[in-house]
Amino acid sequence: MRRGLSGYVRNLGEAGVEMEVEGEPAAVESFLLALKEETPPLAEIERLHLEELPPLGERGFKILPSRGGGKEAGLIPPDTATCSRCLADIDDPRSRFYGYWATSCTDCGPRFTVVEALPYDRPRTAFRDFPMCPDCERDYRNPLDRRYHAQTIACPLCGPKLLFIAGGQEVPGDPIFLAQKALRDGKILAIKGLGGTHLACDATREEVVAELRRRLGRPAQPFPLLAKADQIQLFADPTEEEWELLRSPRRPIVVLPQKPGYLAASVAPGLHTVGVTLPYTGLHHLLLRELPFPLVMTSANFLGRPMLIENDRILRELSGVADAFLLHNRRIVARCDDSVVRKGPSGPVFLRRSRGWVPEPIPVDLGEEPLLSLGGDLNVTFALYHRKKVFLSQHIGNVEEIETLEFLREALVHFLKLLGLPRPQKIACDLHPNFPTRKLGEELGQIFPVQHHVAHVAGLAGEHGVWELVGIAADGYGYGLDGAAWGGEVILWRRGQFQRVGHLRPVPMPGGDLAALRPGRMSASFLYTAGLPPEESGLLPAELRLVLAQLQKGLNVPLTTSAGRFLDAVAAWLGVAEERTYEGEPAMKLEALASRGKPIPVPIPLVNAGETLVLDTVAVFQALHKLGKEGAQPEDLAATAQDVLARGLARIAIAVAKAQKISHVGLTGGVAVNFAIAQAVKEEVEGAGLRFLAHRKIPPGDGGLSFGQLVQLAFEPSSEPH
Questions:
Q1: DSSP assignment, residue 236?
Q2: What is the pLDDT of residues 329-382, one digit of tens each?
Q3: Residue 173 DSSP SS3
Q4: Please, which residues have CB within 8 angstroms of residue 388's CB and are 6 or more apart in sequence?
Q5: Which has the minimum average pLDDT: 54-63, 229-238, 312-321, 392-401?
Q6: Bond preceding residue 119 cis, omega within 30 of 0
Q7: Dist. CA 681–CA 673, nearest whole Å
Q8: Cα-Cα end-to-end distance for the chain
Q9: Quick one: CA dihedral 582, 583, 586, 590, positive or negative?
Q10: In angstroms, rounded to a whole number, what is the distance separating the alpha carbons of residues 269 and 28?
């Protein structure tokens, strides 16, 4: 309007936005330049189509009603961090938003977590419970105000309210001040936030963090932190790239190398990294402003269950965990966990893609038919394909828990409502016959099972738009085509056609799934198979005798090619992991140990087994054992184990790629988040003159599995449903 232009703007749904501007030529040119260079933080211009029209003599600029439906989830941006101008309002005593925890504008604040339906306007959000006061109504209708048509506008007079509860009663006074005092006193608080509830405490006091672990029943799982920028520098040295991630409007948890000595040891026991996020809501900024320490800020849920979002359940179910509660009266429509990223050799890599990204679609052309996929059983997401876009859900979790499976159902219904879609009838799921997601798929439509590691590789292909590659899929477990436990696979993939061309040597898993929880069992298995003393496995004598009896008699010892189980075995042998209390724990502790060491050069034992190449991990274990006897340090042995695993799988993939004249080799699966392993694979691939592919848009672990299932399903139109 400062250029004196007239015209209109309106939403065209999936077609985009239509604008007509009329004015002096120089003013129009200036406007077009500003459209590209001065876009609001949440705006993204994919392409710009210009058409010159005859002048109509229009006066004024209008927002016209939407045309073309507009029922497309991509039109709802993700929740974003409170912007700098809203923070300035919160800190300005002259502003009517001074000290208000839920301040937002068109550039920031809640979106996905508060939207009930489309089109996106206030009566279809959680803010319909809070009628605007005259001042907010004025700003909402003023085209010159940055809160013009901001559906989440609210102020202390008309917006959501905070309350502080202790001893079962609401405590009078300023809830923020009361919460700060409780945290300074070493109390554990439940804090309801944007997409769920967190448990918070002083991250520098060992006795407080240890007590939170005891109450939650999480003995070792790393706790993420909420900290101010100057506090982060006390326990980490982020790179420029990591600071960019920390400060981005998406505001993920960023996993950083940890400097010892400042944080409580129980924040991330046995690890060399710590996850941290900067404040992303007005509530966070107000809470941290007077606190001299960072906070543990971990999801308020019991193992495998979704985060709590309803006040009555928060108070009831966390009464034995939290000393007090900082709650608000705004409904959370869509539960949404924090996103987690870490630096990788090819750029940032997702450990979890959720708040800040969901429901933003991932563009990929998989044809015209709507598709649905349901993921696996752990770290589940689902994915919907519609009109050249994949909508990956927020983090769902472990669907072996009934409550989490119900959350999956609810989230799917919500997504379909936002998309304006009927439920797709073609549904991809994991090949495992007993996964709850497969059974859910059978209820919903025709299922098309997709092998776990094939889905991982297909997802990597789809993400990059590369329709033939050799993929290394390294993780803990996936149900194999032969029914065995796969997890260290090399897959040749061409437009949905695939062949298993390499893998790790199959090794017995004493006790089956129990071997994943007790890594010493895998250590005993490798030692026994290698002809080495199984007494070095780390198992107590009674359990060792049982394991040896199983191995000798072949009782309940299914074979596995899992990279995760190999890393578990090395971790147990080196004494850094006796049991697994959370997913990936032994391998993460091995990575922490390896970060202090250097790989020792050893031969990489590859064996030709007919149509496949095999990395002999038993021979690798023998080499590690020999190095240990010769005096090699545990940290160097850990680094060597990771390095040989990575380079062995990479060399198998390279040999196949060259034989098949394929130029791309990629790494996927949960192990791909290990920096040293990913770096070693990248070095081998690029050193061989091939292109290396790594995940950038979806998690390499099971949080991205549903995306890959969709890609694979799209290339199998003739598949027979099950």
A1: B
A2: 999 999 999 999 999 999 999 999 999 999 999 999 999 999 999 999 999 999
A3: coil
A4: 363, 364, 365, 366
A5: 54-63
A6: yes
A7: 12
A8: 59
A9: negative
A10: 59
Evaluate whether 165 touches 315 at the Cβ level (below 8 Å): yes
Comparing CA positions, the residue from 139, 134, 166 lying closest to residue 153 is 139
Helix (H) or strand (E) holding 11: strand 6-11
Helix (H, G, I), strand (E, B) or coil at 602: coil
Is-above-0.70 flag for pTM? yes
Q: Is 366 strand, coil or helix? A: coil
Q: What is the DSSP string of 301-359?
A: --TTSPPP-SHHHHHHHTTTT-SEEEEES---SS--PPPEEEEETTEEEEEE--TTTTT
Q: What is the pLDDT of residues 39-55, one digit of tens each?
A: 665 566 766 777 777 77
The amino acid at 106: T
β partners of residue 497 = 494
Q: What is the mean pLDDT of residues 455-467?
A: 98
Where do we find the tokens 């013009």?
148
Count of positions (residues) in the chain: 722
For residues 36 and 48, is the Cβ–Cβ distance under 8 A?
Answer: yes
Under a CB-based contact definition with an 8 Å cutoff, are residues 199 and 315 in contact? no
Cα 645 to Cα 642: distance, rounded to the nearest angstrom: 5
**What are 282-303's pLDDT values in tens digits?**
999 999 999 999 999 999 988 7
* 722 has pLDDT over 70: no
Distance CA 375, CA 382 (A): 6
- Distance of alpha carbon 457 from its chain centroid, rounded? 18
Q: Is 205 exposed, middle or buried (0-12, 13-18, 19+ CB in 10 A)?
A: middle
Among 220, 221, 244, 246, smallest CA distance to 231 is for 246
Q: Rounded to an integer, what is the distance from CA 336 to the centroid of its chain?
A: 11
DSSP class of residue 509 equals -
Q: Using one digit for the tens of pLDDT, what is the confidence trace for 102-121?
A: 999 999 999 999 999 988 88
Alpha-carbon distance of 473 to 460, in angstroms, equals 10
Q: Please tell me the distance from the alpha carbon of residue 614 to that of residue 44, in angstroms, as a whole number.
A: 46
**pLDDT classification of 74: cutoffs 50, 70, 90:** very low
Query: What would you report as the CA-atom Rg of the chain, rounded to the nearest whole angstrom?
Result: 27
Residue 427 — φ and ψ, nearest 5°?
-130, 120
Cα separation, 337 vs 340, whole angstroms = 9
At 263, phi and psi to the nearest 5?
-80, 155
Strands 162-166 and 324-328: antiparallel
Number of helices followed by number of strands (H, E) in the chain: 21, 29
**Cβ distance 461 to 469 under 8 Å?**
yes
Burial of 519 (0-12, 13-18, 19+ CB in 10 A): buried
Helix (H, G, I), strand (E, B) or coil at 593: helix
